[in-house]
Design a protein that fits this description.
The chain is built from 3 helices and 7 strands, in the order βαβββαββαβ. By secondary structure, it is of the alpha+beta class. The chain has one domain. It has a 7-stranded antiparallel beta sheet.
Length: about 130
Amino acid sequence: MTRFDAASETERLALYAEAATAHRTRSSDVMTVDVDPDSDGTGGGEIPPWIQLAGTELLMDCTDDELDRLKSLLGAFPEFRIDELVAPESAEGTHVVVTARSDANRVAGFIERAFREVYALEVDYKSWVTAV
């Protein structure tokens, strides 16, 4: 990989697909995509969302409202499904494991739409691939 951040939808899709391909090619433990806290629309006041790819699993944390939006988004990705929901009493949310048995471009599209639709980020949010 030669670049690790992107701020437009086209650039982000290419970045996520390239990172997913590198992750799978290297058989690395995890690929992590973080959102730049200065571009997520919260004014840096909240911890920005992140999504990890671990083989064929996407890992993410969601509030109850975000989990509802995630379930709706999965309707557009029939090859993806929720495999595990973990909601510890000590946490304000749910850790979600989504099985994503699909190619890197489809995974990239899901990550982009999850950031925009599940986490309600602005169209020009900036993200970083911080681990591959």
